[in-house]
Amino acid sequence: MTQFDTALEYRKKYGWEIPTKTLARIMHQEKPEQFHNIEAARSALRHIEGKSKGTTAMVAEHIRSQVPESARAERPRNPYNLPASYEKAQPMYRWPKDANEVLLISDLHVPYHSIGAITVALDYAKENDINGILILGDFIDNHNISRFEKDPSKRSVIQELKAGRAFLEALRDAFPDAKIAWAYGNHDVRYEHYLRRQAPELFEDPYYHLHQRLDLENLDIEWLNDKTVIRLGKLHAAHGHHVVRGIFAPVNPARGAFTKAKDNIVIGHLHNPSHHNEVTMSGKVIGAWSLGCLCQLRPDYSPQTGNSQHGFAHVTIEPSGDFFFRNFKVVEKKKGEFAAYPC
Questions:
Q1: CB burial of residue 233 (10 Å; 0-12, 13-18, 19+)
Q2: 262 phi-psi bin (left φ>0, alpha ψ -120 to 50, beta other)
């Protein structure tokens, strides 16, 4: 008797309404010599019901003819008629495989960006044939529309937006053929959050969203909202404000990210380049990294002390999804002279 004959026999015995996985568990328990695991039994059931590829070629006609039409349709996902749910999966973005040499930059906080540190990062990109650039959040500062106390002497919102647009134009001019994407951070989303609070009536206005206000489409720059899970091969990437929370940052930001993600991950947000790796029982190495910033190191809210350091990273992604990560810190050797060092 084939697996398909046995599957049909169990269907007839237990009925067509019993969930496939439940019946598969019974089949595995009672016929372990024929079904070595639950998935093998489940696969046989789905084949006789016509819900797997290759069904016509694999299942004999005498079996198919005994399967009622009602059993061939996918079972309802809500058998208990529960009320509608607003549950939704968080978006996943897979970085394109052809952009396999990626420059990661984060926390520029335009217009408080460090021209010297950014120049080092872009020089490195030119010298190393970078074909992809991922801005990992907090590209723009949005100081005067934050929830915190405002400093009237700071740049206006319009001045910040103009500086941000000018920066992106310069970046596209410098790398005309590169894949460029911008994943929003907590400072970037201030723009839309402010409008939600102050002017929800303008939701349909073309300038309501930051990517529309800066016309990213015209620059061929892709934007990703701050809740998107980004995958660069087998490496996850996020700004970090949804990963490492709280007022006090961990001593090692990368380890803090690892304890949350428990997978390969790189974050920005904390302005401090670091690395942490662990080896699983099976010998798999999992790495976590945090990026340095490319902005002013001593902002007004912390003018005397702080652990911010400049930095950027370079990720090479293999066709298999494996990757090679190079994390750099940028040091000002003397006034106006910057250099990058591996960290």
A1: buried
A2: left
Question: In the prediction, which pLDDT does 298 show?
Answer: 87
pTM for the predicted model, two decimal places: 0.78
User: Domain residues of the chain, as ranges?
Assistant: 3-72, 93-342
First to last CA, the chain: 63
Nearest in space to 124 (alpha carbons), one of 317, 312, 343, 325: 312
126, two tokens: 């030119």
- The class level of CATH for 93-342 reads alpha beta
DSSP codes of every residue in 153-209: TSPPHHHHHHHHHHHHHHHHHHSTTSEEEEE--TTTTHHHHHHHHH-GGGTTSTTSS
Phi-psi region of 7 (alpha: psi -120 to 50; beta: other; left: phi over 0): alpha
| Exposed/middle/buried for residue 337 (C-beta within 10 Å: 0-12, 13-18, 19+) | exposed
**What residues have CB less than 8 Å from 208, skipping those under 6 apart?**
192, 195, 202
- How confident is the model over 127-154, as a mean pLDDT? 88
Q: What is the pLDDT averaged over residues 196-217?
A: 91
Tell me, what's the pLDDT at 248?
A: 62
* Weakest mean pLDDT among 23-37, 213-227, 266-280, 293-307: 293-307
Contact 243, 263 (CB under 8 A): no
Q: At what angle do helices 38-48 and 3-14 cross, to 10 degrees?
A: 80
Q: Cα separation of 128 and 137, whole Å?
A: 23
